[in-house]
Amino acid sequence: MILIVDDDAAIRSSLTFLLKRAGFEPLAVSMPKEAIEVVRNQTPQLILMDMNYSLTTTGDEGLLLLREVKIFVPQVPVILMTAWGTISLAVQGMKAGAFDFVIKPWDNIVLLNTIKTALDLSSTMPLDPVISENKTLKSGNPAFAKIIGRNRAMTEILETVERVAPTNASVLITGESGTGKELIAEAIHLASLRSDRPFVKVNLGGISQSLFESEMFGHKKGAFTDAYSDRIGRFVMADHGTIFLDEIGDLDLGSQVKLLRVLQDRTFEVLGESTSRKVDVRVICATNRDLQEMVAEKSFREDLYYRINLIPIHLPALRERREDIPLLAEHFVREASGSNQVISEDALQWLKSLPFSGNVRELKNLVERTLIISDKNVPDKEDFQKQYSSMNTSSAIPLNGSTLEDIERQKVVEVIEKYKGNISRAASELGISRAALYRRMEKYDIHES
Ligand SMILES: Nc1ncnc2c1ncn2[C@@H]1O[C@H](COP(=O)(O)OP(=O)(O)OP(=O)(O)O)[C@@H](O)[C@H]1O
Ligand SMILES: [Mg+2]
Description:
Layout (H helix, E strand, L loop, with lengths): L1 E4 L3 H13 L4 E4 L2 H10 L4 E5 L10 H12 L5 E6 L3 H9 L4 E5 L3 H15 L6 H8 L15 H13 L6 E4 L6 H10 L8 E5 L8 H6 E2 L11 E2 L1 H4 L4 E5 L6 H13 L1 E3 L6 E3 L3 E6 L3 H6 L5 H7 L2 E4 L9 H14 L7 H8 L6 H15 L7 H12 L11 H15 L4 H8 L3 H10 L6
Parallel strand pairs: 1-2, 1-3, 3-4, 4-5, 6-13, 6-14, 7-10, 10-13
Antiparallel strand pairs: 8-9, 11-12
Helix pairs in contact: 2-3, 11-13, 14-16, 16-17, 18-19, 19-20
């Protein structure tokens, strides 16, 4: 039995009709308290519930109902229905353990697919978040051991991570290059109920449009000219785990459509296979671009944006949280030296004053390299300053007769050589995103090694 809860009679009857025709056994009620009566006495396979009830003044009956349902029948998947204007309710609902949400007016096919997926996956779904909450959380979670930061913004971020980790809600992490987006994505995975399953990272900035499908969904040998053998797609690798889609803002519009479809239906086709596959993956995306602005410019799909941005996490630049600089610097010293080696007070004060356009990554590089060159037990301000200026003065590039492009190309080559092909580091030194670096490497035909 599928329980439908909606105060609108027209919606109840059209959903009842739709579900019956699809072979389900619907039971529709109009009020949260009737719904509770039902789940007290029997266990539905799934609950499809409206979030907005206009009866009382509080407006959060949907959320209260969801919480109560999760107490009586925690294993039953709940799909929320919400209107465009109240998408924040869906966000709260996902945090409270809903399986998914659909936006009214819904598309029948999308809704039926969501229901089927929820039913398919509910048998293999991890423990219910509400139950497991006390177990995994709030106990000095080891997932956070590597994350340093005691200022207000970071504390709030870690609280959000704790709260959303055990749910299936998609998370969008934004912030400048080097602010720790990947670190936070990993922490969400580690603090989730999927932590013993794969964490699959995909850099969308590095995938060309033509390879997107085969990379993400896989292909069979012979599916196209260059398909010499079978390839396992990233979504298959990530099944039951988490997929981390880095540089999501670099995805072209064509690939955005393909991605949206998997995120909505959790269904896709392997190239060269005739049947479609279903996967259970948690999606975390990251970007250093302004997706909202891209939506306004129509270079990023609005529907995809809402799909991935259920829980937004923004990492402030390091210069906006300078009080963390000493903590981070000491952490990196301990990490690199394996001891409790300290940094002199004047060095810490000086570090706090730097602009750090490359954020935490730049600080980490600076500390690691200063430790290598310093011959003192406790590296002092002069050591840091020497290393800092050597990192920030570019070696002489002859300017005469060079075009701007020549200079750019030369600089890119130089930095890639310096970091032995480590693109993240090279990009951070150049002060651009990795995707932007990849674009320049493609433009100038430069290879990683
Ligand atoms: N709060 C933090 N505590 C400890 N280490 C951190 C913190 N934030 C970032 N780091 C370290 O800084 C480096 C850069 O972080 P990360 O790769 O997560 O950045 P990013 O935001 O993904 O950058 P990009 O946009 O360039 O990919 C990593 O080595 C990471 O471990
Ligand atoms: Mg990153």
